Amino acid sequence: MSETHAPARGAATLHDVAREAGVSLATASRVLNGSTRKVAESYRERVDAAAEKLGYTANLSAQATARGTSAIVALLVADIGDVSFGRLASGVVRGAEEAGFIVTIADTGRDPERELRLVRTLRGQRPRGLILGVARKAGSDSAALQNELTALAAMGCHVVVLGEGEPGQRSISLGNRGGAEALGAELAELGYRQAVVIGGPEGLRASDDRIGGFTAGFTDGGGTTAAVRHGATTRDAGYAVARELLADGLAEGTLIFGVSDLVAAGIASALRDAGRQVGVDIAVAGFDDIPTCRDIGPGLTTVRAPFDDLGYRALRAAVESDWQHDAEVPLALEVVVRGSTPRRDG
Amino acid sequence: MSETHAPARGAATLHDVAREAGVSLATASRVLNGSTRKVAESYRERVDAAAEKLGYTANLSAQATARGTSAIVALLVADIGDVSFGRLASGVVRGAEEAGFIVTIADTGRDPERELRLVRTLRGQRPRGLILGVARKAGSDSAALQNELTALAAMGCHVVVLGEGEPGQRSISLGNRGGAEALGAELAELGYRQAVVIGGPEGLRASDDRIGGFTAGFTDGGGTTAAVRHGATTRDAGYAVARELLADGLAEGTLIFGVSDLVAAGIASALRDAGRQVGVDIAVAGFDDIPTCRDIGPGLTTVRAPFDDLGYRALRAAVESDWQHDAEVPLALEVVVRGSTPRRDG
DNA sequence: TTGTACGCGTTATCAC
DNA sequence: GTGATAACGCGTACAA
């Protein structure tokens, strides 16, 4: 038997494997990790056996320092507890596994200050890519953040921002505007003529795009958007604003569009609590197609937003060495009509 | 002025900073990264200035190799797209930021084979902790996985499993059983006497615990659990099984408990589609308290499960050097009664 | 094809 | 207090 050289503590190192197999460090490295160089079959077997026996797994940190580049993609999101971001992360992680990358995740809690701090921290990982899934407000990108991002880019990190990016930046967008436009058009076609929109805070890109798209589609179809209210993008905000709307008086047959399903869910509850019937009395539509859409009221009409696909693509964009925006085909958003917006006669 | 030694490409290194500040590597290291050693104020200032000027950020990989230990916690979940796991991740990430750790995430897709592969991969990171948020089936832990875990533990990685762990393992559980028991008791108190349970696949710990807890609490309160049906833990499964139940005939005043809110949401829709009225005709209760609970039917009675707290605690358990199970106080699960289970007279 | 030796960026142990 | 210098675990010219 071979001598006792079991790694007293800690994991087996490449050195251990080489010794156990009776080969040089270099040879062991070549067989265990991808190298173009060839190594004799007999050696290969011995090394593999030794690695297996010792339970060797390459130390990724050491590999990263040696190679000068890591197999890490950092994901920064506004709120990982949010369903949509969860699905986004799901797509990112799926892509990462395929591509052999590791995903690190951080959460800004929608706080720009924290975002900046986190991006700084992330730089330490020397990630190959950074996916910025943060709710962006128009023109709110601080210079400091931009500096960080260009610094990141300078060290070879592919920064991909979700939504519209600056020119020259890798970016990929969900298609909020187009999806909402299709929704507006469809609802106009269904016979709705009066709509009210409950959106997120003014300036929030995703919200603004959805509002703009919906209004365009609905107007083109012959409808009129009577009002746009701004609030938080939450269920409670939807509920609260809807109650205000009801207090102000809301004509029967009016359609309320909430910029997200969560908002729409709040709206539906507000209507119900006020004794109005969703769908027959007042119509409601949302955006996202969260899992419980079918179970809200008579079923919530919405737009299916493929956040997982978005995440998957973002990862590809973060990982590929060359990437061109133009090659991207738009994601497929699908209008899903349910009971909350039945066809209107008339 | 100092010479031109701008790092041609890539990030500034500690070496660069030291040279720019005109001090030694060691000194630069001491001021920039935590060291107990003191360094003169004048030097400290110069180093800080140089670091700032060069935009220095420590290379974490290099730090990890040098220190022999990383500041990484790996999170392995069954499905990050699931709301509950999203909230879990949220808590983990929050704790990690506090503790100065980085979180890497991977997704098993509920596939044991993939789980094993991923744990192997994760070993490469030499993480300080590993959080296993995977849906566990009783007795399904393969020997191979156990081996991996002990290997991990041997290299100093704190493995913390969510749910009931093996003795000697760090584990922390949500309290499914207790929560469900409280729910059962509360519903019995509200006057319900007949219940049917729609659970997940047989053997799934979380599901079994909830079923067992509910039955115990309900029975103790004077109720009877007429039947337990097993299926997937999904909305569609809830819907399908509920339809079967209806086809078989369901007495008015019966209560249906779905082991998760998603299942319960499906149940509620099945009832509605069959012309039954949730709450007045048949009662429904769930578990988790997902965001749209209030907007499903007349509001879904459920148990608020603090997944984010669970995640936060899991991170603490993964990070702390010594940790004892006994010190953990149970998480606070709260029964939330809503319209889907009004008080029954009689 | 195989092995030697140096470098990656950082920490830590020593002398000074 | 400060600065050389040897690790850390691994990749990879380069030489053999």
Automatic annotation (TrEMBL), chains A, B:
Key word Transcription regulation present? yes
* CDD domains per the UniProt record, alphabetical: HTH_LacI, PBP1_LacI_sugar_binding-like
**Keyword check for DNA-binding:** yes
One Pfam family this sequence matches: Peripla_BP_3
What start-end ranges are recorded for coiled-coil regions in this protein?
A: none
Gene Ontology terms, MF aspect: DNA binding
The record's keywords, sorted A to Z, are: DNA-binding, Transcription, Transcription regulation
* Signal sequence bounds: none
Output the superkingdom of the source species: Bacteria
> What are the residue boundaries of the HTH lacI-type domain, all occurrences included?
12-67
Q: Which PANTHER family match?
A: LACI-RELATED TRANSCRIPTIONAL REPRESSOR, LACTOSE OPERON REPRESSOR
From the Swiss-Prot or TrEMBL record, give the protein name.
LacI family DNA-binding transcriptional regulator
The organism encoding this protein is: Microbacterium gallinarum
